[in-house]
Amino acid sequence: MPIVALTALLLALGDAATTATPGSRSPWPVALERALAALLEQQSQGEPGWAWDVTLFGSDEPAANTGGVIANALLDSYRRRPHPSTLVTLIQYGEHLERAPSSERELAYKADIEFLARAGRLGLLPHGESAAAERFAHLRARSPSGTSEYRRIATGRGELAAIVGYDVALAIRAALAVNERTYGIELAEAYLAAEPLGQRGGRDPFAVLSTAALTLALARLDEPRLDAALATGRQLLVAWQRPNGAWAENNSQTTAYALMALAGAKGTTPERLALERGRAWLASTQLSRGAFPAYHDGLPEPFVGPIIPLAEAEVLAALVATAE
Q: Which of the listed residues 82, 196, 223, 237 has the most CB atoms within 10 Å of its CB?
């Protein structure tokens, strides 16, 4: 049975699992259920994965650099509320990754490494942890230290330097997933030495995304000597929030990362208010089909941004992380 058809069947059969039971943490919000259903239905018909843009009918070919980010978001959702269709999708994508070639010359994507390790620890992929460790070893063979990997990332991005912080954040998360914390700290320190947070200001959407994603990664590193940078990142995000609650020109992906970065704060009033306003804005942008557009300027459908599964997944992760 095709992946999409199987997922749709399991989604229908699993509806009862989405209702909160007495004593459960909280009801599973309808908005989250609709977002999850939309993302699962957008899977490619053939090879496991998601196309880059599903706004209009067109190419269904998976974009290899998006699958790991989406799978990690689905894993976040699954851990909060196990759902049979999510489980099928996670296993299918993980087994696809395990079969994919990886070498020093053909490095795996960082988000794929993180997903394999996490899914392996949860028992969803029996060989997930070893596959993740093998792929990270290939990365280490190319870049022996986090500092050298930062240089490789920065060189590869070239003129798109504003997005390097996002790439570094994904690398830090991959390092943490395979217990390479020192490597992750080296990555963070190398990036911060080259580009202190806030250096590019809060108007460039890529720069704001990098700040938000890196701040989230710093929170997960939980390294005392990086606490000052973490605090700076959160302060910048509060200062850069738009009056409507969004970040970076009503960008859904950046707003999602800002929310996740602020969610772990110890509850100062500005951060808490920014979190509440941001989540309210994000929830207000959900479309009738359950998806989230890449940006939303408050106009009615269809006058909204494109439907990008990668950004949708990061919105799903943010809603899960901030759900009460």
A: 237
